[in-house]
Amino acid sequence: MAITKSKIDYKLYLVTDRDVLGSRDLVQSVEEAIKGGTTIVQIREKNCSSLDFYKIAMQVKEVTSKYNVPLIINDRLDIALAIKADGLHIGQEDLPLTVARKIVGEDMIIGVSASTLEEAMIAQEQGADYVGIGSVYPTSTKLDAKYLAPDELRRIREAVKIPIVGIGGINEKNVSELMETNIDGVAIVSAILGKEDIRSAAEHLSMLVNK
Amino acid sequence: MAITKSKIDYKLYLVTDRDVLGSRDLVQSVEEAIKGGTTIVQIREKNCSSLDFYKIAMQVKEVTSKYNVPLIINDRLDIALAIKADGLHIGQEDLPLTVARKIVGEDMIIGVSASTLEEAMIAQEQGADYVGIGSVYPTSTKLDAKYLAPDELRRIREAVKIPIVGIGGINEKNVSELMETNIDGVAIVSAILGKEDIRSAAEHLSMLVNK
Ligand code: NI
């Protein structure tokens, strides 16, 4: 993959969730979202065998490669290596960043989830390429997520130099006020994949984040 | 780790299962099993975060290193790399062997689960270091496992040159007749970790497999 880290556009960051999709095809849905303006894709799979995760990721990679959109794998460093993904996203319950970095080297993007300024600063110091900060709004897709105070997001934006992606409960109604905090992008699940017309949902959000 | 593949003793192969242990400590239990004669240890974790798996595996590795017993990680290639395990064990629903081998290289042991002669032959051709064949007896720890006919195990033993470890429902009552098939070792879960005195259960099985 010829993705240059410094040129990555985090603005409209799609995170997959097959529960939200219901019976619709994941690969086709990702393609629709990319046609609508998604700039980066993260595959998140839970309770799925390693083989299934690998197969799904290979299929999604065909689509992201076709559109030259970076592909990030959630949690599973082995899947990221196996499909030669552009990046790995790790949460606070995943492999430690320093351990992951030693294995994947400097070329792979590593993003880290953080819900406090302290976690974000540690991730930056340890060499994260970006941080996902959230939840910025209440969310139904991650029921255990804590809800971040708006002031905390501004403090993080002032303190952290690496790209920041807001995550959690972001939709077309709140995305504009969120972008005013000068974050680099928004991670979206339901507000794209939960819509009947995935492409037009992405188009609308793309317009709002690029205003 | 300075484990030489050709010198690995598969005779008494412990596979961990925290459900079987109940409230007892995994690391201490593994140490007891090693003191009783366990020759190789596989950590199998399901439904546990990557961080927890990593931490547990690091702790178990301290024990296996102390006794110079090889440590194998089930399914999760990333955890195997992160803790510099001696090996990785993959099932038919895990990453494909050829994909895993490219990532970990030749030094890491890769074992593959097989339930038929065909699967075992494919694993051997693709460079598996050993095959785990089962279930050889009915088992309660893996409810979906199919039960292998004794003749099938003999056919596999005749056809396959790499080490064979029998798995599934093996205990002190059936282990002696099983070793008569000339397999290289037996993988044990409950018949060691499910016993009150783990060390003496391992000692008894060790005596039986070495007869
Ligand atoms: Ni006895």
Automatic annotation (TrEMBL), chains A, B:
The gene is thiE. Binds 1 Mg(2+) ion per subunit. Gene3D superfamilies: Aldolase class I. Condenses 4-methyl-5-(beta-hydroxyethyl)thiazole monophosphate (THZ-P) and 2-methyl-4-amino-5-hydroxymethyl pyrimidine pyrophosphate (HMP-PP) to form thiamine monophosphate (TMP). This is Thiamine-phosphate synthase. 4-amino-2-methyl-5-(diphosphooxymethyl)pyrimidine binds at Q42, I43, R44, E45, K46, N74, S113, K142. It comes from Gottfriedia luciferensis. Mg(2+) binds at D75, D94. SUPFAM superfamilies: Thiamin phosphate synthase. It is an enzyme of class 2 (transferase). Belongs to the thiamine-phosphate synthase family. Its cofactor is Mg(2+). Residues 12-192 form the Thiamine phosphate synthase/TenI domain. Keywords: Magnesium, Metal-binding, Thiamine biosynthesis, Transferase. Pathway: Cofactor biosynthesis; thiamine diphosphate biosynthesis; thiamine phosphate from 4-amino-2-methyl-5-diphosphomethylpyrimidine and 4-methyl-5-(2-phosphoethyl)-thiazole: step 1/1. 2-[(2R,5Z)-2-carboxy-4-methylthiazol-5(2H)-ylidene]ethyl phosphate binds at T139, S140, T141, G169, V189, S190.
